[in-house]
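Entry 12.
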Amino acid sequence: MSMVRFVEMEEKHYNSAAPFADSPGIIRVTRDLPPAHCLLKINSFSAFAEADAMEKYESGVFEAGGYKWRLVLYPKGNKKSNGDGCISLYLQIAETETLPLGWQINVNFKLFVFDNVRDKYLTIEDAGAVKRFHQMKTEWGFDQLLLLDYFNDASNGYLVNDCCIFGAEVFVIEHKACWEEMSMIKQPGNPISCKIELGGLQTKFNGSSQF
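Predicted 3D structure (tokens):
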């Protein structure tokens, strides 16, 4: 049984898992707000999808969180990753040659498809998971974003007048959290020492046992 969670914010227009492939742990939400970082419009989608020489399309580079990214779209599905019969869409980090040796980037991201009929964006994310991009893994996304038959039906809103819009939001998680550690130390003679560490700096307070 599918573990897909359907979260309807305003309209309940999905009556089953039919539009989507069996995607465990994937959350799909509709919203009015467009994606913050990237919008990709594909005109003449049918011609693009039917071109035998074009298995995938890589978007132009966009910036988010201080890094460069692109979308990678498989209009007939990524057959190497169980995406046959679906739209496959991925986020890929770009210009990795400019990053330092041993780089890794932790990211929370969402991908989008615009619904022309309801004037909303279908938002797809991996159940709050943080994805780690590194030299051996430069791409994350969804093999089975939408079933092709459902996507190609104009009445469903995703492919209208042979045009469609995809998008992305990318939030980089930096390791810059503020931290604090406090220790109470009882010494001979009953004085109490209080030591607080803030972000690696140590502050020490001395006092009596009575407060």
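Annotation: The chain has two helices and 15 strands. The CA atoms of residues 135 and 149 lie 35 Å apart.
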